[in-house]
Amino acid sequence: MKLTSYKISLVIFFILLVSAVIPVIPVLLAYSNGALLGGLGYLVGFDGPRIALPFNLVMAIVSITIYYFVRSVTSRIITALFATFFLNGFVMFFFERYLINSNIYDFGPIILAGIIGGSLVLADFLRVKTKSQ
What we know:
Blueprint: H1 7-18, H2 24-44, H3 48-69, H4 73-98, H5 108-132
């Protein structure tokens, strides 16, 4: 179990963790995700916020699954960025819908970094474990 196997997921985790102090990256990701959902909602005829949670969750699971199976470094970076984009959208819309009056909302970017980093590290861990057996 080498640290090089976890480089991409750890770099994304630490970038998001450092940016949690001034959450520019998560906010930009959330606004661009909202723009994507607004355009998608206009095309399919649904309200953007109505399809936000299921769409982001499905796309995040698909992105992490693809991240697990790809072998090249470039493909892993691209799928990790897609997973970051959709997981960020899911967590932000989840906080907005269910935890708006809670104190945990202030810790959103830190929790977001933990969820995204944890899911990517878990995918890397499972890849290393299944490859070694």
